[in-house]
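Key result, reporting period 2: structure in, sequence out.
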């Protein structure tokens, strides 16, 4: 899957315009990078479109074990929307990635169970 296809699916899933879908996709990936270990990021990066590779390098050098609410709050801050709106938007990104990117299934297994609601 390339970035354009991914953006189209996120747009449709969250009823967003292209520019907003792009911001949400990037913010979600940056926040995911903050949440994951370096080893996990390397594995995930191999499956992502080339355009998203830079987002993985913007995370924390160490894994930060924050919960799903904090995850959504961080995305909301990056995008500039209320957490309630970000929840739907993050769910569109992570759900699309979960369906379309093989390695995201392995990432999902390493996240706390509460993240399952974001990846449905």
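The corresponding designed sequence is given below.
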């Amino acid at each position: 899957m390339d970035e354009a296809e991914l953006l189209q699916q996120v747009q449709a899933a969250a009823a967003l315009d292209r520019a907003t879908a792009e911001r949400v996709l990037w913010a979600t990936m940056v926040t995911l990078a903050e949440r994951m270990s370096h080893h996990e990021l390397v594995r995930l990066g191999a499956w992502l479109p080339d355009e998203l590779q830079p987002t993985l390098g913007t995370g924390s050098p160490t894994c930060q074990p924050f919960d799903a609410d904090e995850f959504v709050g961080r995305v909301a801050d990056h995008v500039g929307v209320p957490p309630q709106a970000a929840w739907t938007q993050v769910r569109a990104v992570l759900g699309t990635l979960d369906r379309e990117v093989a390695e995201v299934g392995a990432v999902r297994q390493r996240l706390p169970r509460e993240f399952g609601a974001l990846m449905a």
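Helices lie at 3-14, 18-35, 38-45, 53-56, 68-79, 83-100, 102-110. The chain has a mean pLDDT of 86. This case is discussed further under Risks and Mitigation.
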